Amino acid sequence: MYKITLVPGDGIGPEITRVARKIVDLLGVPIEWEEVPAGEEAMAKYGSPMPEELLSSISRNKICLKGPITTPIGGGYRSINVALRQHFKLYANLRPIKLYAGAPSRYSAIDLVIVRENTEDLYCGIEFQKDKEETVELIKFVEATKKRKIPLDSGISLKPNSVTASERIARFAFAYAVKNGRKKVTAVHKANILKYSDGLFLECCRRVALEFPAIVFEDRIVDNMCMQLVQKPELYDVMVMPNLYGDILSDLCAGLVGGLGVTASANIGEDIALFEAVHGSAPKYKGQNKVNPTALLLAAGLMLDYLGEQTAAEKLDKAIAEVILEGKAVTYDLKPGKTEGVVGTREMGEAIKSKIK
Ligand code: NAD
């Protein structure tokens, strides 16, 4: 029996987690769910968006399926999604990007994997607010040591890339490629401009590549990569990158295969893993039985795969693929501009359920 932490999350989270849980329960894998709040619901219940109940449940169970959590813009608390990844040292963010036949796309076949470093880079959360004493001091320090002026009315965010984290994520990407029969790993960076952060990242990738001679290694500058992915996605396979580029390219790649409704991610650490949709809490659709439950279901598939439950993972993937291909019971995002065959979250969930054999 697996004990798994289930976080309903905010906005559309509770609707899609309800559907995902019901479907996963049909796959013949014994799971006891431990449901705990995070985000707005946890704030109301415990006075904290990331309460001790949540942290202890994930520490105990080591596996978490998580609905999206809202991050207040500007003020308020920092992203709980980022904080959970940092707290549990979930250093690898794995995002398979696969085109399911029937999903709206300009392409006929896409099968990519993004491996995003999850703990540092511009997402390390170390920022210096404009006009704060420490910020002024930092500006003066930079001026004294680098002989360069930063305007005094600046805000500053740090971008650390370490050898430890860069080699670790590169090794994860290559090991993933070997295990999953992939042929190539592409490192994505901006090392031409950011010589000491991305340059170091690239150096680490090159070094790790030598340990995996059976896998082809190449690198691309991130802006060029964006264009290449739009023009010739078939040239790419596994891509490894620092945190920020991973965030942006994941959404770009989601757009290649039908949108945020069909892309999932796994956040993996040494012994804890958290699975979630790539999309956020889409607050404007909250409670409307409208959004696509597929992304969270694909996250559940990644979770089953991680647990070694490949048969169940394949069963789920097949059921999802059939429903998308038939196009008779899919959510609005999979049928842009059409009404025929468009159903709500629950109904698409029911259609997927009916395909599970
Ligand atoms: P979002 O992903 O929530 O929604 C953007 C748009 O994408 C939606 O308006 C909708 O049109 C579409 N969309 C998203 N999910 C969909 C689904 N399942 N089916 C169909 N269409 C879908 O992005 P946002 O509006 O920028 O963010 C809303 C909140 O979510 C913010 O507070 C943000 O910080 C948070 N967020 C959380 C996570 C996470 O929990 N990991 C990830 C991204 C954003």
List low-pLDDT spans.
none
User: What small molecules are bound in this structure?
Assistant: nicotinamide-adenine-dinucleotide
CATH first level of the largest domain? Alpha Beta
H/E series, N to C?
A: EHEHHEHEEEHEHEHEHEHEEHHH
Strand content: 15-25%
Using the alpha-carbon principal axes, give the shape: globular
Report on the structure:
By secondary structure, this protein is α/β, with parallel strands linked by helices. The chain contains twelve helices and twelve strands. It has helices at 13-24, 40-46, 52-61, 80-87, 133-146, 163-179, 198-209, 222-231, 243-256, 294-306, 310-326, 345-355, and strands spanning 2-7, 31-35, 63-66, 92-98, 111-117, 127-128, 156-157, 184-189, 216-221, 238-241, 264-268, 273-277. α7 links the parallel β8 (184-189) and β9 (216-221). α1 (13-24) crosses α10 (294-306). Bound molecules: nicotinamide-adenine-dinucleotide. Nicotinamide-adenine-dinucleotide binds at residues 68-71, 81, 260-261, 276, 279-284, 291-292, 295, 331, 333.
